[in-house]
Description:
Chain A is an all-alpha fold. Chain A has 7 helices and no strands. Chain A has helices at about 1-25, 30, 40-45, 50-70, 75-100, 105, 120-125. The radius of gyration of chain A is 17 Å and the shape is globular. By secondary structure, chain B is mainly α. Mean pLDDT of chain B is about 90; it is low at about 135-139. At the A-B interface, helix 4 and helix 5 of A face helix 4 and helix 5 of B.
Amino acid sequence: MKRFIIAFIAAFIFIFLWGWFYNGVLLKDVFAEAQSLFRPREEMMGMFHWIVIGQAGLALSFVMIYASGFAGGGIASGVRLGIMLEILAVSARCAFYATQPFPAKASGAHKHRRLYRDDRHRRNRWHNL
Amino acid sequence: MNWKKFFIAFVAAFGFIFVFGFLWYGMLMRGGYSEVPALWRPEAEHGKYFSWLVFGHIVMAFFLTLLCAKFVPAGGGSACARLGILVALVYIGVDFIFYAVQPLTMKILWGWVIGDLVMFGVAGAIIGAIYKSSSPVAS
Lengths: 129, 139
């Protein structure tokens, strides 16, 4: 239990910092292209606890999955689990990209651009709206 | 890994996830989505992006099947349903974050939360039931 709690705290801190750096800093300009899809900044800050709860829930469920069947495999097993869960998350982003007018860069769907050669054309059309 | 059972379980999971997604997110939650129409692509564009939707569901079903097949030593419906629910909790964390950054309504948020729990729980149970006789567990 002690290790579980330590792993959860470490995962939460990493997810929080990575989320801030990747989504809040690196992808800032990309998200700005779809500003109308997001809450205004002040409102977003008022909802900050939802981000913390969401990331804590994400870290907790990740550690629970790891502890329930992966723990024997050490770091490599954790990395494999992380990659699988991330690919699952990419599948959800494909669904978001299909239903919301995000630029492909923001949805992470650009990773599959080679499978969808007309994607650039679609994005250009979106930018022209 | 028993690839024949894996493939059958994957197809069954995909069929369930796709049909459930259509009924739950596409039909039952339609009223909730219409409260914030600016967030969604216009209906006329849906056809153009349908391939992304199908591709997303295929990837989802494939990796959920892979997770269940490789990492649930005992196999069986209930064990895989539990794993499915844990995976749903990962998605629910993401739902909360989307709620914080996008002007979604509470109705949509809780619709997603319940939908994720049911979808991944049942899909896990289906995979576990089909892949029951379990092949060797990967380390």
